Amino acid sequence: MSETEIKVPNIGDFKDVEVIEILVSEGQILQKNDPIITIESDKSSVEIPSNFEGKVKSLKTKVGDKISEGDLILILEEISTKKENTEEKPNIEKEFKKIKVIKPEIEQASINQVKSLSNEISSASPKARKFARELGVDITQVAGSEKDGRVIEDDIKKFVSSTTKNINEIKEDKIKKIKNEFEHSDFGEIEIKDIPRVKKLSSVYLTNSWTTIPHVTNHDEADITEMENFRSSLTDMYTGEKIKITPLAFIIKALVASLKKFPSFNSSIDEIETGKMTFKKYFHIGIAVDTPNGLMVPKIRNADNKKISLLSIELKEVSELCRNLKIDKKELFGGSMTITSLGGIGGSFFTPIINFPEVAILGVGKSQKKQIFINGKFQTRTMLPISLSYDHRIIDGAEAARFNNDLKENLGKNFAYKLAV
After folding, report:
1. What pTM did the predictor assign?
2. Sheet holding 72-77, edge to edge
3. What does DSSP assign to residue 266?
4. What are 11-22's pLDDT values in tens digits?
5. Which residues are identified as catalytic?
């Protein structure tokens, strides 16, 4: 029985493009031009079809892989008998006929029962698939209303609408969508641009965090006078040159020390209904990085085992990877707690949104010199605004205040002088 290798065809100038969807499975019968995978670049999503027919013997790529022209996708084997084809086709056609006669008004549960009879993957354009992914919809569960059961955006909208109504029967009709009575263009010249892909992806997580986590934010100021004096005095013992260390490296070390003392802040609750919470034994600190494409939060791994100088170097490296969109996707997950800093831009206090599934986030403002009353007289001190947002289901106000007090102490005189560079 002969075998045929299906490779990535000419996809233009794109290289190392991410595979976002596998549209076939092993043992499946393929016809010529059937879509087999979907790839996505920064600009668009594209389905790659098969230029041969046969049975899928083995898949050689998976979701998340980076592929280029000539890379092996899968291996097809020749179908040995025509009987197998004649047995398969009537069943597939029969199921598609069933799907085609279903009307949108029919309960979605019935649609799912019909679709479960078929092993075929839903036919849909890359645009429709992308729309489904952005909404978190499994497109194989959506019944298509077009020819041969092809799924379009309206089908996905109806699926989401029916699912939402079943889950939120009590809340339905209470929230009314507000629609503008006039178009923006009615009042002057406008320009419409695509929302950056990073912002669209992060919006889903931000909305989930804000709507599911009861946020409380504790504002305070840390006296970092000694820490800043220590930081600015660092010099190379061999060359005498000044060593530049970002303040964020000191804040990471201070935060790790507080996390060790308050383990609830280094935990996660994936589902509150289970009554379980996960305590993490590692210390991977997330750093919010401002990029032209949107906010990204890479992780500084095992920050408890790294010196200040190494942390400062890694901060620069991951920030550069994010700005060039070269950061590995996995590096955006698996954090203990996140730090978001506006110190380099300006501003004091704000209310940062928790990076789910973490339970707290530290916001850092721009440090300022202030007159502080100490030991009966005013002194000029460098004060750092800090804003601690926390999940009130796990952390109460008293614990958050104690955490902030410990963090302030860690950023103070005693801790700063114990740091090794």
Report:
1. 0.58
2. 3-7, 72-77, 54-59, 29-30
3. G
4. 776 778 888 888
5. 392
